[in-house]
């Protein structure tokens, strides 16, 4: 067979399947993804993710002392800062990876429980950019905390156990949807109809006693009896409605991972493992798991919070008091580890195919995000991109580079701008997904592994 004639200067991204074709590599990819799938099935909220990662880091020698060789701390159990000391001085900067632990979901409203037409339902307010129709007519679970007035915390995880009842939001039957189907998607699915069915059995009473909301009353009685929770307790609660079910491999060849929450827990897990598995002692390494990315990173646990700066200040003060924090920050390199869009086989027209990312081609370097006219982008400097290119190429780690989608067709941002605001060198770097923000996001197993290897290489320096 004749080979295609190409210039010596031509560039083609390597398919990660060809890089990891060997038996050893295939086994490593599979083992890594087995534990990744287990992690996804266990962690469905930012609190659960931070708790899991804290426990994992503690098991790998991370302690409470900023002066220690490995340090982990968190704020409100929702965001995390971890530090691993290297032999290099801190005035030479740190290698920092930031990923976010929150995902789009439905949150219970402050007064959630109501009754209509014989059903007790929970009213929700959606969190993050989600497509409302994807949350209808599917099994859902409730995760979160209810804080009593005396400070006691009731941890909620309902709808995940074997044989346990799940929850759902009903959808309109096609027979009566003639009006709805002519509307725009935005108008057809209303936020105020995202009510979760909690039950339908009325209170058991005598014929003549009057109860105005018999189903809601029965549900409230059940909540009090089973969990010791009253209606007022929901005013100080954080209940998140998430898809019930575990993560799994997808496809006859198990080449993909399908799960809720891969944006951005795919980067949380790969960066976590990169930090604990890294070899080489020179670099000072930081891992940050931020919260509230999906709604703009505001809040004390979001990437715009000063918390992470304070943590780094504690570390520098403890190890190298003669170094000013700003000098460490300015000498640092950061990867904003977040997902990007993969070329969608059925919606190829939203991508500009010369500059898109494809599943199966490794971790993606996104020099800039933002939207039309690069608005809102904190662009990575060519020098940093060059450094990362060299690092991955030398180690034979597959990677690709592109944009989110066609110019002027939309866009999106990450937390990179908050690190860039400190004067840090930062680049967006993470795997591509299909069905992003849906209850069942897809990633490629080789991209999961490539991301892990890329983050590990970055930490190793
Ligand atoms: Mn994200
Ligand atoms: Mn997102």
Secondary-structure map:
Layout: H1 16-19, H2 23-42, H3 46-59, E1 70-75, E2 79-84, E3 95-100, E4 105-116, E5 119-127, E6 140-147, E7 153-158, H4 185-188, E8 195-199, H5 214-227, E9 237-243, E10 248-250, E11 256-259, H6 262-277, E12 285-290, H7 307-319, H8 325-330, E13 333-336, E14 340-341, E15 363-366, E16 370-371, H9 382-395, E17 399-401, E18 411-412, H10 416-420, E19 425-430, E20 432-433, E21 441-444, H11 445-460
Helix pairs in contact: 2-11, 6-11
Radius of gyration: 24 Å
Level-2 CATH architecture of the largest domain: 3-Layer(aba) Sandwich
Overall outline? globular
> How many DSSP-defined strands?
21
Mean pLDDT: 96
End-to-end Cα distance: 42 Å
- Which kinds of small molecule does this entry bind, naming each only once? manganese (II) ion
The number of domains is 2
Tell me the number of helical segments per DSSP (H or I, 4 or more residues long): 11
CATH C-level name of the largest domain? Alpha Beta
Low-confidence stretches: none
Question: How do the strands of the widest beta sheet line up side by side?
Answer: 1-2-12-3-13-19-15-17
Largest sheet: 8 strands, mixed
CATH topology title of the largest domain: Aminopeptidase
Going by CATH, the homologous superfamily of the largest domain would be Zn peptidases
Structural class: alpha+beta
The share of residues in helices is 25-40%
């Amino acid at each position: 067979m004749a080979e295609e004639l190409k210039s010596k200067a031509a560039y083609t991204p390597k398919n990660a399947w060809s890089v990891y074709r060997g038996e050893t590599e295939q086994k490593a990819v599979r083992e890594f993804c087995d534990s990744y799938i287990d992690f996804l099935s266990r962690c469905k909220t930012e609190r659960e993710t931070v708790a899991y990662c804290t426990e994992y880091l503690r098991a790998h020698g991370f302690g409470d002392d900023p002066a220690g060789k490995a340090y982990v701390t968190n704020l409100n159990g929702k965001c995390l800062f971890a530090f691993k000391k290297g032999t290099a001085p801190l005035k030479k900067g740190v290698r920092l990876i930031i990923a976010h632990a929150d995902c789009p979901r439905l949150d219970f409203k402050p007064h959630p429980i109501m009754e209509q037409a014989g059903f007790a339902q929970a009213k929700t307010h959606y969190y993050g950019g989600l497509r409302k129709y994807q949350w209808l007519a599917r099994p859902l679970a409730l995760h979160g905390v209810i804080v009593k007035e005396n400070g006691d915390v009731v941890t909620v995880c309902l709808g995940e156990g074997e044989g346990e009842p799940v929850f759902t939001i009903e959808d309109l039957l096609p027979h009566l949807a003639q009006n709805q189907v002519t509307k725009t998607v935005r108008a057809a699915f209303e936020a105020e109809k995202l009510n979760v069915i909690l039950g339908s059995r009325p209170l058991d009473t005598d014929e003549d006693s009057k109860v105005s909301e018999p189903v809601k009353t029965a549900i409230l009685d059940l909540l009090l009896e089973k969990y010791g929770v009253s209606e007022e307790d929901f005013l100080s609660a954080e209940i998140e409605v998430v898809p019930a079910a575990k993560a799994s491999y997808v496809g006859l060849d198990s080449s993909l991972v399908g799960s809720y929450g891969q944006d951005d827990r795919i980067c949380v897990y790969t960066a976590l493992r990169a930090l604990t598995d890294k070899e080489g002692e020179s670099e000072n390494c930081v891992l940050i798991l931020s919260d509230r990315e999906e709604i703009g990173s505001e809040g004390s646990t979001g990437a715009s919070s000063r918390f992470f700066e304070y943590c780094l200040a504690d570390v520098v003060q403890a190890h190298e008091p003669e170094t000013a924090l700003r000098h460490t920050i300015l000498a640092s390199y950061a990867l904003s580890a977040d997902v990007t869009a993969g070329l969608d086989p059925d919606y190829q027209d939203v991508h500009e195919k010369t500059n898109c990312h494809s599943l199966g081609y490794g971790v993606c370097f996104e020099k800039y995000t933002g939207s039309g006219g690069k608005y809102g982008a904190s662009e990575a400097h060519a020098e940093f991109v060059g450094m990362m290119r060299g690092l991955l190429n030398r180690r034979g780690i597959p990677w690709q580079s592109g944009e989110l989608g066609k110019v002027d067709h939309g866009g999106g941002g990450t937390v990179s701008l908050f690190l860039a605001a400190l004067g840090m060198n930062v680049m967006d770097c993470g795997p591509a997904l299909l069905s992003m923000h849906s209850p069942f996001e897809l990633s490629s197993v080789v991209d999961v592994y490539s991301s892990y290897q890329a983050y590990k290489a970055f930490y190793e320096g």
